[in-house]
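question for whoever is on the cluster today: can someone run the full assembly for these? two chains, 681 residues total. i dont have access anymore since they changed the login thing
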Amino acid sequence: MDLFVAALVTGVGLGSMYGLLALGFYVTYAVSSTVNFAQGSTMMLGAVMGFTFGVTLGLPWIVAILLALVACVVWGVVVEAIGVRPFARRGSDLWLMATVALGLILENVVLFTFGKDPRGMPQSALTAEAFSVGGLRVSLLQVTIPVVGLAIAFALHVLTRHTRSGKSMLAIVQNPDAARLMGIDVRAAIVGAYAVSGLFAGIAGLLIAPLFTVSSSMGTLFGIKAFAVAILGGIGNPWGVVLAGLIYGSAESLITATFGSTYTQILTFGLVIVALALRPDGLFGRAGVKKV
Amino acid sequence: MGIARNPRNGWRAALGVAALVVATSALAADPIKIGLVAALSGPSAQSGEAITQGLTIAIDEINAAGGLLGRPLALVKRDDESSPPKGATAARELIYDEKVAAIFGGLDTPVSLAIVPIANKEHVPYMGVWAAGTPITRNGANPNFAFRVSAVDVMVDEALLKYAQKNGAKKPGLILINNPWGESNEKGLKEEAQKLGITLAGIEKFEDRDVDIVPQLTRLKNAGADALILVANAAPGAQVMKARERMGWKVPVISHWGVSGGRFPELAGPTAGDVVFVQTYSFFGNQKPAGKKVLSELEKKYKVSGPEGVISPVGVADAYDAMHLLALAIKKAGSTKGDAVRQALHEIDEYQGLIKTYHKPFSAQNQDALGPDDYVFVRFEGNKIVPVH
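^ ran it for u. tokens below:
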């Protein structure tokens, strides 16, 4: 029982991190059917920038956080401009490789400037114990992560269903050419989506950093898991993405708790494949109808 | 037809002898080159710096006492950047071009494992002063030119379990990094546990980039672990400590020395000081004359302020003792030829060193000068490494 509760609390914490990062995939996919595959390295950028501004340079935290988020937004726009647009315009799928390459470049630039030594964020009231569940201490930050994830999913839901710009976003997904003819600025919408995707990754990075160590390679595995979560949730549904994150995180830590850590990656990724074989559009996605 | 009968031949002979004398005296002044292949840049650069300090202090002492075989010693350093191919290339260059008498190694086991076969093939003694991988010295080669003055994984495993046992642990649990280093220690710890009659509560592994290790630790806790044996570097080790803190679990943690590299206190937070780990030497506490001398040289040469200023005590102390042991062997051999020096290393009787007084430090069966009884247990107090007692 103790083991089960501990695993579930851990899983929900981890899962909401994956979900938060996976929402970045959702935003760009919804508008342009492309994603930044190196979303994990954008998350790393947020954490590294937060550490550099807040700890190394000693700026007030609110300023450090804002600057880090701005850096992630700018990076999102850069990725779209040089990694996605030139390829997508020609109808090529090479943005896949280009975004991975940009992520690797970013990781190596950080490696040389930030250093290879992993760093630790200072402890604060956010990381102190807020309450405990089944004997496991839970910090304010661990609660903040799922709350932020759900809040963003809710905001995206409201935006796309109930606002003009949200509806125009959906119009772009359905038919970019028609949308353009109707006076919707498709290019601006796509650039905006990448900026927002960078913002989400930055928020994820800043929230995760104090629970983890800050280093150039911290985002790689996270990015891959988040992508699995995005696909699992049905990439076109923000609620589904966040829920899939929670399911994935819980599965991961329950498997570790039951079978031992040796089997964690094998079984969780195996389950993702099984789930997708049974539901190709994800657990919460809807099959796209193709009219001929 | 003697040479002297022809005056011109006599001149030639005299010139020849003179030339020979000049040549030999030049040779006599030629330094004996001592090679070092270690990480001098990158995240482990501090280790290379510490080894350099230990070697330099020892070499300066030897040179001040007249050198070896009438020749001074000179240190020739090469950076391996923690990369095995770069280390192997550097070792070849030192052997073929610089004609070094011996090669000292650095922190990385994989780099050492790349250099040792070259040393064995070329019959050049290899002196390990940091990397603890068991197969570095136990490599199966005959003749074996790999010697070491440092910790050895299998012996560390024995020391960790003995320490746990001595401090009342009946059922320690293992929490190991999932890589070849963790695996080699898993093997060593299992074997030692069996020898010591210790039942392990369980063996759990975690990844280098795992964020939350609560599930693994909970398994060990539920299995009744009353101590944790940790094998991991600073960053993943810190994640273990954070998980332990969240669980409110006050279990003692006994660790291999991986946590001493990097910024463990910053990464692990308030419970960093709960980890007890092994070192081969500590400059804290009462120092014997050798310790006082090395500390004062460190202060003079490298502006080190007291024991807390020593960046990596292990690197300095191991390198210092290893250099003196090698010098004793070269003196005994009366030559810098690899085979003779190797033989002489086996014949060293006693040396009053920094870490301890060595009695027969090396033999054909055991080319590791330090054993489990030579390890000291330490912990972090703030950013300082202090002995546990």
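summary bc i know u wont read the tokens: Residues 27-156+175-217 of chain A form one domain. The longest strand of chain A covers residues 129-133.
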